[in-house]
């Protein structure tokens, strides 16, 4: 995985997840009935960027209500953000594109870029979209089962996600099982390590101690079922 440029940006490092947990009704609705609910405009962009570079989406409200706790709460008035039929949401439009693609494609949706999976996963956390989180987590697991996260990806996830999120555990395990400590660090690598939140180093040391001194050589490599977002729905 490339470490050519950091994926951390100020839209997620503030940890501004808009709602902690909203129960999402997974009810089936006929397309004809769903279409009668209409649509809503969603303006997406990054604070400080001129509005001309923001992107406007017109999305069916039934999809937002069904698949996103954040949008469901916003549409029903439990959260601010809906004004004159438009919702304003801060995110990178390029990442939000993937959320919209997934809304309309569901099982047909796929991403072939691990960096994008990390970014969409973080967006899904902010939107309280557990099914999309689960999909991205499975994709990242396939990449990290025998690989290691980049320094940028470690910093990005630990800045953006809650302390007990399953992706953080996967990142730590991948670093422990597949890489250990890095060799031949460049000056740029050393700077990046300094940007990684202390929580990662604590979790890494605890996990390494468990594997080396408690479980020893018989430590079993984690499998995909060990990481689940079900507890976060």
Can you tell me about this structure?
This protein has helices at 31-35, 61-67, 69-75, 93-105, 114-127, 130-144, 151-160, 166-178, 187-195, 198-215, and strands at residues 39-45, 55-60, 82-83, 86-90. With 233 residues, the protein is of the alpha+beta class. The chain has one domain (31-232): 2-Layer Sandwich (Potassium Channel Kv1.1, Chain A), CATH 3.30.710. Strand 3 (82-83) and strand 4 (86-90) form a beta hairpin. The radius of gyration is 19 Å and the shape is elongated. Residues 1-18 and 20-26 have low confidence and may be disordered. Residues 46-144 form the BTB domain.
At a glance:
Helices cover 48% and strands 9% of the residues.
How does the SSE layout of this entry go?
Blueprint (H helix, E strand, L loop, with lengths): L30 H5 L3 E7 L9 E6 H7 L1 H7 L6 E2 L2 E5 L2 H13 L8 H14 L2 H15 L6 H10 L5 H13 L8 H9 L2 H18 L18
Helix pairs in contact: 2-3, 4-5, 5-6, 6-8, 8-10
